[in-house]
Design goal:
There is one protein chain. With 73 residues, the protein is mainly alpha-helical. The protein has a domain of 32 residues. 78% of the residues lie in helices and 0% in strands. The chain is built from 2 helices and no strands. The chain is elongated, with a radius of gyration of 29 Å. The N and C termini lie far apart (75 Å). The mean pLDDT is 79.
Length: 73
């Protein structure tokens, strides 16, 4: 028991009556601008160099661990 074509048409007519054709076309234009902006942002993100993560511990952490070990031993 799914949605039939007639039900979709009735919903579409109600939406057009409530919002009007101008408002719907304006809304769809805004959606299109948003999609273009998103694609542009993704393309710019791909052009940016990838950030690398340094997995080596910093000197302060290494020095602190060595100091802790010398106090313990």
């Amino acid at each position: 028991m799914g949605i039939s074509v007639w039900q979709i048409l009735i919903i579409a007519v109600v939406v057009v009556l409530l919002f009007g054709r101008g408002k719907i076309s304006e809304l769809m234009g805004d959606v299109a601008k948003g999609i273009k902006s998103f694609k542009k942002g993704m393309a710019e993100d791909d052009d940016a160099p990838a950030k690398t993560i340094d997995h080596q511990p910093s000197e302060t952490v290494s020095a602190q661990k060595a100091e802790d070990q010398s106090k313990a031993g």
